[in-house]
Design a protein that fits this description.
Strand order of the largest sheet: 5-4-3-6-7
Number of helices: 10
Low-confidence stretches: 223-229
Distance between the termini: 47 Å
Shape: globular
Helix content: 25-40%
Strand content: 15-25%
Order of helices and strands: HHHHEEHHHEEEEHHEH
Largest sheet: 5 strands, mixed
Structural class: alpha+beta
Radius of gyration: 20 Å
Mean pLDDT: 91
Number of strands: 7
């Protein structure tokens, strides 16, 4: 593990999770354990060798652990430790901050990354509590809102108010306003069940933040070259 030889908590945190891809591995495990192949599918730009190394690094740092599944399944999964789960608010804050940076990739957004994006772009509407069952291919999630907060968990809700069946690309376009919900339903790329008004309300409660003006100094500060010449 890389050391900065700096007692600051930020430096110590970066020594544990600052290597390239490390926090994205954590992102993939926020909603629950995954097998090696599942992690690879969520991080298609990461080579298996690098993934193996990051898993070893994060395990050595105490951020995640490897657990063998018992019979009848013969496989191992990786899951966050309690300390690793404490990175969730850090990743949410980074997601909100990074969403204001210019979008420079045309790659599709992974399913778990999209679920994190729902958390970071939710705009409270003050409406009644609602539970929506969300299916994206073979993946199932429960999206629950109190009208003030939003939670996303892996797996089907027992008694959802509404259901949404679609794919990640369509959901991303609908929730971020690039495609209308009615259009997606009419095209057959998104199916609604249960209370359609509730589904429409929840799907309409996300907003991408305004782009950051990286060139503008903070109020009360001056550029280093202000007044030069």
């Amino acid at each position: 593990m890389r050391s900065y030889d700096d007692p600051c908590g930020v430096a110590r945190a970066l020594a544990a999770v600052g290597e390239r891809w490390a926090l994205l591995v954590v992102r993939e495990l926020l909603l629950g354990p995954k097998r090696f192949a599942e992690l690879g599918r969520g991080l298609p730009g990461m080579s298996p060798n690098v993934l193996s190394q990051r898993l070893r690094d994060l395990q050595a740092a105490g951020v995640l652990t490897r657990r063998d599944l018992g019979p009848p399944v013969s496989a191992a999964v990786y899951e966050l430790t309690e300390w690793g789960h404490q990175l969730e608010p850090v990743l949410l804050a980074l997601g909100r901050w990074g969403a204001r940076a210019p979008l420079s990739s045309a790659a599709p957004l992974g399913v778990d990354a999209l679920m994190l994006a729902l958390r970071t772009t939710y705009v409270p509407d003050g409406g009644p509590p609602a539970v929506v069952r969300l299916r994206l291919g073979v993946e199932s999630f429960t999206v629950a809102t109190t009208g003030q907060e939003l939670r996303v968990t892996r797996g089907d809700a027992e008694a959802p108010d509404a259901g949404v069946d679609t794919d990640a690309a369509t959901l991303r376009d609908v929730v971020f306003g690039r495609r209308g919900l009615t259009d997606a339903v009419a095209a057959g790329t998104l199916t609604l069940t249960g209370d359609r008004d509730t589904a429409a309300r929840v799907l309409g409660s996300f907003r991408r933040p305004a782009p950051a003006d990286a060139g503008r100094p903070r109020p009360g500060t001056a550029r280093a070259d202000a007044g030069a010449g």
